Amino acid sequence: MTGLQGKGAFVAGSDKPERSTVRVGFMPLTDCASLVMASVLGLDEKYGIRIVLSREQSWSGMRDRLVRGELDCAQLLYAMVYAVELGVGTAQKSMALLMNLNQNGQAITLSRALAARGAVDGAGLAALMANEARRFTFAHTFPTGNHALWLYYWLAAAGIEPMSACHVATVPPNQMAANLAAGHMDGFCAGEPWGERAVREGVGVTVATSQQVWPDHPGKALAACADFAQRHPNTCRALVCAVLEAGRWIDASAANRETASEAIASPAFVNVQRELIRERMLGCYNDGLGHRWHDPHRLRFYGDGAATFPYLSDAMWFMTQHRRWGLLAYDPDYRAVAERVNRLDLYREAAAATNTPLPSTVTRSSRLIDGRTWNGRDPALYAASFAASSHA
């Protein structure tokens, strides 16, 4: 703990973590990197805890283990946190969102067969579907999760009604490319490295990144059940401190991103070849159609604090999309729910301890792929502004 005195580190006295070992669930995805590196680099020990990582096999399984208390915290789909809080598709459980883990870095992939027929973007897909008698099948990773909402938003922006014009399936992320190759679906939305795998194996093409849908969108969240956060605030704060430092380390240089790619590619974590993670981790994209670019909105884990801050407007957006697609049957008090779930108090204390910059406001303004601006000012009006066919 040398050198931490006077810098806000919570390591002793009344601020000592209530629990020295923290069981944290994660999914084998590129964006588990800051959780993994917090442990690998020993940053957890710096703040008086030991992170015990638990590799999970499905989002629903990890959610259920968290709710049952078998995990203390978990890397959850941001939208899933709010589905649990509101009892959407599952039993209601009060939740605590401790921080955002990352921004950007997901992808929408279509089969190479569709791309060969002109479906290389939303407009091309819409034109193809208009002349087909069958309903196309698209997959996401969880019904109330981020990937479902990115997929629906992208389809709708192209004039495709997801709920009536498509079959939608839930598939584990690491099975996406195989199912696409087998012809079980026409496309999918998932986190990396599974979009990259589809491109490298020649079975799919990247027609959109999630950052094209919403530049610098929120990604996975570090979450706990509200009762755990209530009983263990110092433990949660220490965990956020460690993960903030890990995110800052990853974002600090290309060399660090290379090292993180190698670490998380190992069998204990994502269990893939390093090159499958490395390229898009560095922001180097190949869409499988001959187009290569360096994405200015690549996956990021810190972004001078902008990528980790739990903006209330981010939380409210996911609830508006649950409402839009009929997953949520009523308009909640969006702001009040976001203020209750997003633990800004713990995050701000962790930010002070790690010298992480804080934004000037708890909401932000963003322009999405369909030209709409989201700023969190009137969530109910925003949710209702979408076409009636997509709003329950």
From TrEMBL:
Q: Which UniProt keywords apply?
A: Cell inner membrane, Cell membrane, Membrane, Signal, Transport
One short Pfam family name for this protein?
A: NMT1_2
Is the keyword Hydrolase in the record? no
**Entry's localization field:** Endomembrane system
InterPro entries tied to this protein: NrtA/CpmA_ABC-bd_dom
| Record keyword Hydrolase present | no
Q: Which Gene3D superfamilies match?
A: Periplasmic binding protein-like II
Q: What is this protein called?
A: ABC transporter substrate-binding protein
